[in-house]
Recover the amino acids of this structure.
DNA sequence: CACAACTCAGTTGCGCGCAACTTAATAGTA
DNA sequence: TACTATTAAGTTGCGCGCAACTGAGTTGTG
């Protein structure tokens, strides 16, 4: 019934750490991908990908944003954002224009079409909540945990080799 | 001190659900990406990406695996796995051969070079643990939570429109 | 046996995510 | 004022992750 064991004698500590189901990052990625599948389904009526949806959320919430600021909010750099915004622009949802104050900066804002999409978008979190059965408290708790985890990982990543 | 509010009058419930920092999936993805950055750093000596590392973990642990079985373990389909395995093969770490029993199936196994890499790989989880400061109990708890979450999301995704 | 249904791996196409680089504009400084 | 350093956005290249499809091999049913 058990599969052929790896060609070693006994499971040492080091080997236990290499077991696939022991990888926290793997579990995190799996949860993220499973969530992504739910959103992909809920978003297909809007014609948005999940990253595009996040960008629209940021713009709906904050109004006009520079690419840099948007990147800070979404944790993305221009290498990802530039083509993403180009696609949103060609879909008619956002407008891009260089800042008069600082010609290096590009200001992104929603068009009338993009603003109109917001109403439809309010259905998305409701649909996701309905399908997953999460309640508000549960989601907030999970968000808090993940936020603290991310902060810790960011600190570990930023830190020099120590 | 507060940022300019969005061009609406009051924050309704629906609008609160659209706030960027209220998106659980976003928090999950951020944590996953932050973790990925740590691994990317820890893995660069091995010359492996994180998905490639996961594939090697599965092969080290289980020995020879079909592409299908490997995909089940890693939650990936052949569209992702085929090119990934091709890269691992051209790096000399794995070998691919069609199964004699079932010519549709391709069996993947580690080469001597791939097996030798395992020793070096034992350093990776230790390095990650060192940098993040996680202890075993903490990681196990988090893994359990994420596993239950993934199961729930998978069920929500598999379910018909209900 | 014949033939349809299914399974498995692979390919193509597209959108991220990220590193490395380029170009243009601004800020800082001698 | 020149001149360097810095900053912002964009581009290129590559590796996933996933949907859609192809083609070869296998299974099941008449």
């Amino acid at each position: 019934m058990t599969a052929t064991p790896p060609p070693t004698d006994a499971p040492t500590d080091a080997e236990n750490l290499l077991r696939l189901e022991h990888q926290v990052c793997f579990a995190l990625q799996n949860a993220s991908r499973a969530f992504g599948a739910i959103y992909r389904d809920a978003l297909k009526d809007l014609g948005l990908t999940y990253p595009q949806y996040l960008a629209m959320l940021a713009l709906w919430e904050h109004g006009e944003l520079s690419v840099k600021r948007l990147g800070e909010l979404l944790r993305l750099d221009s290498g990802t954002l530039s083509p993403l915004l180009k696609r949103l622009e060609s879909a008619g949802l956002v407008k891009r224009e260089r800042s008069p104050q600082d010609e290096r900066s590009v200001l992104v804002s929603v068009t009338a079409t993009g603003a109109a999409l917001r109403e439809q978008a309010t259905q998305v979190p409701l649909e996701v909540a309905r399908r997953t059965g999460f309640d508000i408290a549960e989601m907030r708790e999970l968000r808090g945990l993940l936020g603290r985890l991310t902060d810790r990982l960011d600190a570990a990543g930023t830190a020099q080799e120590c």
User: Anything to note?
Assistant: Residues 49-52, 76-77, 79-80, 83-84, 87, 102-105 of chain A lie near DNA strand C (CB under 10 Å from a C1'). The two ends of chain A are 46 Å apart (CA to CA). Strands of chain A lie at 65-66, 94-98, 106-110. Chain A has a mean pLDDT of 90.
